[in-house]
Amino acid sequence: MNFSRRHFLSASAGLATAAVLTGCGSNTGSVSTGSKSSAASGGSGKIVQWYHEYGEKGVQQAVNRYAKDYKDATVTVKWNPGTDYMKLLSTTLLSGSGIPDVFESEYGATLDMIQKGQVVDLTDTIGDAKSKFSKPVLDRMTLDGKIYAIPQVVDMQLLYYRKSALEKAKLSAPTTFEQLVETAKAVKTKEMGGFFAGNDGGVGVLGNLLIWASGFDQLNDDHTDVAFMEQAFFDAVAAYRDFYKSGALLTAASKDWFDASPFTNGETAMQWGGLWSLGDISKKWKDDFGVIPFPAIGKSGKQAVPFGAYGSCVAAKGANNDVEAAKKYAKWLWVDQTDKQVDFANSYGTHIPSQPDLTDKCSQISSGAGKAAAEMVDKHGKAASLFWTSKISDAYSAALTNVVKKGADPKSAFAGVQSTAKAELKRVNK
């Protein structure tokens, strides 16, 4: 699993302090120092395009092939190895020197990039193709009605379960948290846990899911306050605390949640994991597994899955100072070239194309559990708000840990999060 992609999804699904959250594929790839570039000859113009280092083999070669196929400009692809791509990108944009014309960014442009005018509005670039993209994914790359990135490929998290274990207990796949707890208790044995979501008891990876699954958003519509200071949320967190203490939740496994091993080894009947594990799980259990979103908590709850998606952005002041040429290339690659988008999503690990209509062309997710997983993004997809800063996330992490592991009162614990959030949102709202 590639660390950078696991990391960016952690901001969406769980807590900023979670060690890892998602990946893309089981291949770790190699991490080297420095950077690698390749130029593809084309028309008279020049474009510099940046990627982070993907963990799957063949991605670098693929994006170079895509660039070479573009005939209206010479596209130079820069591959950026290492785990600090977003830090490098931020530093470069601030420096004003060596800025790429087109670059990928976690969830699209950051709030800072937008507010500082470092990226351009791509709403007209996408144009009528807007309806072709997954709405939750495109919404995450939009601010005040303006689209600042074109989604490239989608990763997600979901719940895996053994069909045979649930059938033996005469239970169906849970759709509510109450049913999840009941099922975990029923299928648990001396040798096998009921549900696994990490060696920390799931507190890290399931952090924000407790907000979404209880029917709330992180923040209100005008980004001035949190949106979950309600009894239903406090009850949801308390319910998870009870689950944590019940013994039906496996809290010590051979690997952490992002690795499929506890599920494929038979250590647990249900596991929270990532789409990147689908291949390994399919190989092991064949048809004896299913996938579902995280169950709804409480009467107002909603099923939810977190997703991650890199987006292609166009710099306002790129190396070649030709915004229109850069926009044209970004549209060509990420809107028009559907064959390349299918290749990008399907050939290097297990991913979902950002245009749902292309799913049927991706062999790994065109049927069965893969297709069911892919459909969850449109139906239940959630991602952290642009305004959910690291300071807010850290405060939320600490409060959740105090409630679940230390027995703190939820209302009191999250009152501190609200105070932190109000101050942070006042700072970033411009």
Which CATH C-level class of the largest domain is it? Answer: Alpha Beta
- The geometry reads as globular
* Counted beta strands: 14
CATH topology of the largest domain: D-Maltodextrin-Binding Protein, domain 2
Q: What structural category do the secondary elements indicate?
A: alpha/beta
Query: With helices defined by DSSP (H or I, 4 residues minimum), what is the helix count?
Result: 17
Radius of gyration: 21 Å
Describe what you observe in this structure.
This protein has 430 residues and is of the alpha/beta class. It folds into two domains: 3-155 and 306-382, D-Maltodextrin-Binding Protein, domain 2 (3-Layer(aba) Sandwich), CATH 3.40.190.10; 157-305, D-Maltodextrin-Binding Protein, domain 2, CATH 3.40.190. Helices cover 40% and strands 16% of the residues. It contains 17 helices and 14 strands. The strands form three sheets. Strands 1, 2, 3, 4, 7, 10, 11, 12, 13 and 14 form a ten-stranded mixed β-sheet that branches. A two-stranded antiparallel ribbon has the order 5-6. Helix 2 links the parallel strand 2 and strand 3. Helix 10 (231-246) crosses helix 16 (390-406) and helix 16 runs antiparallel to helix 17. The relative contact order is 0.18. Mean pLDDT is 92; it is low at 1-5 and 15-35.
